[in-house]
Prior knowledge:
CATH superfamily of the largest domain: FAD/NAD(P)-binding domain
Bound molecules: flavin-adenine dinucleotide
Strand content: 25-35%
CATH topology of the largest domain: FAD/NAD(P)-binding domain
Number of domains: 3
Largest sheet: 7 strands, mixed
Distance between the termini: 44 Å
Structural class: alpha/beta
Amino acid sequence: MEKRxxxxxxxxxxxxxxxxxxxxxxxxxxxxxxxxxxxxxxxxDEIENWTGVIHxxxxxxxxxxxxxxxxxxxxxxxxxxxxxxVDGGRKVIHTDGDDIEAEAVIIATGASFKKLGAxxxxxxxxxxxxxCAVCDGAFFEDQEIAVIGGGNxxxxxxxYLTQFASKVTIIHxxxxxxxxxxAIERAMSNPKIEVIWNTVVEEIIGxxxxxxxxxxxxxxxxxxxxxVSGVFVFAGMDPNVSFMQGLVDSVGGGWxxxxxxxxxxxxxIFAAGDVRDKYLRQVITAAGDGATAAMAASAYISxxxxxxxxxxxxxxxxxxxxxxxxxxxxxxxxxIENSAAGKRSNVVLLDGYKNRRMVxxxxxxxxxxxxxxxxxxxxxxxxxxxxxxxxxxLS
Length: 395
Ligand SMILES: Cc1cc2nc3c(=O)[nH]c(=O)nc-3n(C[C@H](O)[C@H](O)[C@H](O)COP(=O)(O)OP(=O)(O)OC[C@H]3O[C@@H](n4cnc5c(N)ncnc54)[C@H](O)[C@@H]3O)c2cc1C
C-alpha cells in the first residue's frame, strides 16, 4: 500500500495552507481533492476580507492559493475520500482509487450548503433552484428571483445577483440579518432588493422550471405566493463529514471538535477549516487552522519518529524521564548522565516537560521516573528521587 507522511483531505483554503506549511516543514505532503482546488471560494465573486487583498474574486484567490502550494511542491491527486480506518496507530485512507496509509491526516473537507428541505426543492434543483450565485446568476437576466437566508452569504450574494436580476427578494425567517453591517447597508440601499422578514419557504412550485414560492409568515401563520423564476438558497452549511462515519468526536450534525492544535479525538488525525466546530467560518480562519494543523501534524510525526528511534527500536534501553523546568529533577538528570557515562548501561534522558504528550502516551504519570523498555514495550518503571534509587533501578 502507498505510504505517505501527511495526507490532507480537501484543497480549500485550509487544506492548501496546510500543504504550504507541511511542505515548508519538510514533510512529504499529498493533497486529495475531489473537485476544483480552492474549495467554496470558487463560487463567490467578491472577497474583500482576505488581509492584504482589498478585492479579489474567489476564483482568483483559489488559483493563487493552489499555485502557492504547488510552488512548494505539494503533490495533488484528484480523488474522493470514501472513508478512513484506524487500526492501532495505522491510519488508512480509502479513496475511489487505491488505499493510502498516512502517518498523519488533516481533514479539511469544508462544508456544503444546507438544503431547505421544502417540497419541490430537490426536483427543481438546476431548474431554477441554485446554491451558487456565481455559477447560475447570469441565467436570470432581467428576471425576478428570491434569495433565502439572512447571514453574510445570503446578503452579499443577493447584492451580487442584482447585476443580472430585475428584482431580488430576500426571504428571511427572522426580523433582522446576521450579516456584517457593511453588507447589510449595501443590500438595504440597493433599489433592486426587497426583504420579506419572519418568513419561510413552504414549497417551491414549477412545471419544468421554478414558477413560484409558497411562503409562510412564522409570526402570523399566513401563507402567500411569490412569483419568481429562480431561488438561491443560502440557509447555512453542513460539514462534509459523511465519509468519516463518526470516527472522531463531533457536535451538532458533524462539526468536528478539535483543540487549539487542531487535534481531533484520534491521535494523528487533525481537522482544519469550516469542517471544525468553530465560531467564524471564513477564508482567513480556515487558512489559520490549516497552518496550525500542519505544524501540529509535523510535531506529531517527529514525536512518533523520536519515540520509535529512541525507545521502541533498541533491544533494551532505560529512559530517565524528568521535567526540565523542575530544578532538582534537572540536576538529578545530569547526575544520572554523569554516572552512566563510560558504563555499559544503556540510559537515555527524556525531557518529559517538552515531550509531554509522548510521556502521556507511554502512560507515565509520575516524574521523574526510570522506565526500562525491552523490544518496544515497557518492562519496568519506577518513580525515583535520588541518584542512589536510579542506580539501584539500573542494577
Ligand atoms: C458563496 C460564498 C461566499 C463566501 N464569501 C466569503 C468571503 O467573502 N470571505 C471569506 O472569508 N469567506 C467567504 N466564504 C466562506 C469561505 O469560502 C470558507 O470559509 C472557506 O472556503 C473554508 O475553507 P475550507 O478549506 O475549510 O473548506 P472548503 O472551501 O469547503 O474546501 C473543502 C474542500 O474539500 C473538498 N472535499 C470535500 N469532501 C471531500 C472528500 N470526501 N474527498 C476529497 N475532497 C473533498 C471539497 O471539494 C473542497 O474543495 C464564502 C463562501 C461561499 C460559499
